Amino acid sequence: MTYQFIHIGKTGGTLVREVLRSLPPEHRRRLRFHGHDVTLPQALEAHPEMPVFFSVRRPETLFVSAFNSRRREGRPTYERPHNRRERIAFRVFDTPNALAESLSAGDPPLRACAEFSMLAINHVRKGLRWYLRGTETLEEHRDAIAFILLQERLEEDLRAFTERIGVPLDAARVSPAERLHSAVAEDEQEVSPAGLANVREWYRRDQEIYDWCVAFRDGRVAG
After folding, report:
1. How far is CA 113 from CA 37, 88, 119, in A?
2. Are 100 and 121 in contact (CB under 8 A)?
3. Mean pLDDT across the stretch 6-24?
4. Tell me, what's the pLDDT at 177?
5. Please, which pLDDT band fits residue 175 given cuts at 50, 70 and 90?
6. Cα separation of 52 and 220, whole Å?
7. What distance lies between CA 207 and its chain's CA centroid?
8. C-alpha angle 99/129/105, rounded to 5°?
């Protein structure tokens, strides 16, 4: 059987893809990898015979990682220049906390700029909800979901997935312990309690999706 990977931005998907693509051909051919532009419904519509797997991440840490990665234009792993809307956003906000706190700013223009920026910055805009739609969609397609990996336990979950489908992860040339696109030293990681509350409210539906995915991974979603 062939399994298809949905690459949700800033959830460790680059690591998953690079490790699994480094497997010997006889194992690699059992895996199909989508880019950042493919959603769960699209993947299953195109290949209904292929179960899916994907990784997820807590929305608040996904936000911080996405902001910092795009601020760096993807470096050091990639080099993808800011688009016009991103250039506007990063001229106003230079840290994830500055953006997060401004979502509840008392100054209406600043708050509007923050809301614009949340929709302008790639990966900040496209969180779990963009790829997975909602818990209703996950329930609809639950029988086609082979495995969900948690970014927080990526190495452990990647090994569990490959063991389940009978692929020897130790045969991969790239070790899952290697972090291919991790934060760099100068990245600002801290978000204040006020900023965190704003981010959690913004990604409220993404959190519902994340909670469903954790329960599915742990076998707590009833069939």
Report:
1. 26, 9, 10
2. no
3. 95
4. 75
5. confident
6. 19
7. 12
8. 20
Nearest CA among 49, 13, 46, 10 for reference residue 148: 13
Q: State both tokens at 141.
A: 């397609």
Of 82, 209, 221, the closest CA to residue 143 belongs to 221
Average confidence (pLDDT) over 140-164: 95
Q: Above 60 in pLDDT, residue 222?
A: no
The pLDDT tens digits for 59-86 are: 999 999 999 999 999 887 778 899 999 9
Contact 40, 87 (CB under 8 A): no
User: 3-217 — its CATH code?
Assistant: 3.40.50
Q: Is the peptide bond before 76 cis (omega within 30 degrees of 0)?
A: yes
| Average model confidence (pLDDT) across the chain | 93
pLDDT band at 180; cut points 50, 70, 90:
very low
Q: Is pTM beyond 0.85 here?
A: yes
Secondary structure of the chain in HEC code, one letter for each residue: CCEEEECCCCCCHHHHHHHHHCCCHHHHCCEEECCCCCCHHHHHHHCCCCCEEEEECCHHHHHHHHHHHHHCCCCCCCCCCCCHHHHHHHHHCCCHHHHHHHCCCCCHHHHHHHHHHHHHCCCCCCCHHHHHCCHHHHHHCHHHEEEEEEHHHHHHHHHHHHHHHCCCHHHCCCCCCCCCCCCCCCCCCCCCHHHHHHHHHHCHHHHHHHHHHHHHHCCCCCC
Closest CA to 65 of 149, 148, 19, 123: 123
